[in-house]
Design a protein that fits this description.
The chain contains eight helices and ten strands. By secondary structure, the chain is an alpha/beta fold. The protein has a five-stranded parallel beta sheet with strand order 2-1-3-4-5, sandwiched between helices. Strands 7-6-10-9-8 form a five-stranded antiparallel beta sheet, sandwiched between helices. Helix 2 runs parallel beside helix 3, helix 5 runs antiparallel to helix 6 and helix 6 packs antiparallel against helix 8. The longest helix is centred in the middle third of the chain and has 52 residues. The radius of gyration is 31 Å and the shape is rod-shaped. The protein starts with about 25 loop residues before the first strand and ends with a helix.
Length: about 290
């Protein structure tokens, strides 16, 4: 089940895990000891139950071990139920059910405006309370699952669009480079393809006893020339932080701004694959220019 933990707060310890025989953990918040005991007795048949005698205590308990639902009294000294609910809503979406003796529509609307999911009036029917609590937890679990699935679909869609864009860049490169008759144009077509991929690169095409190198900045700096001189000896693929080198016999591509492998593993891997295809294809086109 999806849980929301506030920044800087660790999750529950292994000793706090839900009882396997129970359906979840409920926090009962009420300043009246008799009400706490009554609600605990009703809910303990099906749930693990924690209790708090004030809004402040409830907030601290939630930060230590977030429950699956909060059963919250309205009338409490210092921090009432409405304010407790508003503070909880700043960092968690767990269901909150108000329990109150107030019958007026105005008080009920206050509960919903504060962020409550439902409301039960005192004296509470045990059957109704159990049903409302079970339904609220089930709905929250279903919503959390939908959110996770939606995020997974969005990640897949972004990956597909990225792959489609990269494929288009490679196809354009092949279309333009297959008719290249000189190494300068071939090197610039490689550079154009890396530019389409959102990368800043130095490209070198080696031919006979010479080499043609191009970069986005016009003429190569002494440092860039030094990088190219060493790049060809770094193996087929070499990466250090944001720098990536892809080498073939005739072609080297040095990337200056690769995405972080840890922060963006999917995009980083996809770009590395595209650059490998690009360099290998350019190798073939360099031989074509030779002929």
């Amino acid at each position: 089940m999806l849980r929301f933990t506030p920044p800087g707060v660790s999750g529950a310890s292994s000793a706090d895990h839900d009882n396997p025989g129970k359906s979840g953990r409920i926090l009962v918040v009420d300043d009246d000891p008799l009400s706490r005991a009554t609600h605990r007795a009703i809910l303990a048949k099906q749930f693990d139950v924690l209790t708090a005698a004030s809004g402040s205590e409830a907030l601290n308990l939630c930060k230590q071990q977030l429950p699956d639902l909060v059963l919250l009294d309205v009338e409490m000294p210092e921090l009432d139920g409405y304010e407790t609910c508003r503070q909880l809503r700043q960092w968690t979406s767990v269901p909150i059910i108000f329990v109150t003796a107030h019958q007026s529509l105005e008080e009920h609307l206050k509960a919903y405006d504060a962020g409550g999911n439902n409301l039960a009036t005192k004296p509470v029917s045990s059957e109704i309370l159990l049903r409302k609590v079970s339904l609220a937890i089930a709905q929250h679990q279903a919503t959390s699952q939908l959110v996770e699935e939606k995020e997974a679909i969005e990640r897949m869609a972004r990956g597909f669009l990225s792959s489609a864009s990269q494929s288009g860049s490679l196809i354009n490169f092949m279309r333009e480079s297959i008719v290249c008759q000189d190494y300068e144009r071939l090197a610039r077509e490689i550079l154009r393809a890396t530019d389409d991929l959102g990368l800043q690169c130095i490209v070198q095409v080696r031919h006979n006893d010479d080499a043609t190198a191009v970069t986005h900045n016009g003429e190569l700096s002494p440092l860039e020339i030094s990088i190219l001189d060493n790049a060809a000896s770094m193996g087929r693929i070499f990466q250090f932080k944001q720098r990536l080198v892809v080498n073939y016999d005739r072609v080297s591509i040095v990337v200056k701004n690769m995405p972080d492998e840890i922060a963006e593993p999917v995009r980083s891997g996809s770009l590395r694959d595209s650059l490998t295809v690009l360099a290998e294809t350019a190798e073939t086109f360099a031989i074509n220019v030779d002929m």
